[in-house]
Amino acid sequence: MKYTKLNFMLSVLGIIIYITDLIVDIWVSVRFFCEGRNVFGILTVSFMLFGTLVVQCFSYSWFKADLKKAGQENQHCFLLLHCLQGGVFTR
Length: 91
Prior knowledge:
Radius of gyration: 17 Å
Strand content: under 5%
Number of domains: 1
Shape: flat
Helix content: over 70%
Number of strands: 0
């Protein structure tokens, strides 16, 4: 399968939307904490962390499967990258 210009544009758009979503989530949670709405702030942070954790787990499992198909077994650097929340940027 060829990686077309459309695929590239959609990848860039996806990364922009992902980063924007994280920034807005952080901004909303900070506003909740500043207004004294600690329960909503904690809920916002919890949902944000759960979402990023799920995305990183799926991304790592796809990387692991791809590396196994390619015959490469060194997965430690990819595991560290995903633990630091950077795995989706390498996909």
